[in-house]
Amino acid sequence: MMMVLSALRPDASLPEFLAHRARSASIRRLSIDLAVGVAGTFAALWWRASAWLVWRPSAWLVLASLALCFACYGGWGLLDRARSRVAVRGHQLLSGSMEALCSLLGLVGVLAAAGILLGLWATALGTWIS
Hints:
Elements: H1 14-24, H2 27-49, H3 60-89, H4 92-125
Helix pairs in contact: 1-3, 2-3, 3-4
């Protein structure tokens, strides 16, 4: 099966841009994004929770949210590819559940992006308000 990607509109929104970029990325790249994102998220959460570490980053939320954005992007891209192949074969139930998982990953990615912004804001204001 040959897949033809069209050019992105100049006035495309951020979700359209990210979908186009994920659909044009290789499976290897999306897998690396997913693996690095999951590992980075767990590393940031472990770093925050470790009591024996002397230095813990105050911006752990930013690090964890950034890694979670990568994980959601890679996971969504891989799941979107699988969903399009399943839809061509006519498996309605599997296609519907993959659509729900794509939506869930998109929602978690948006919340992680909000976590980045809020974490940066809290880190910047942390020393001003005491």
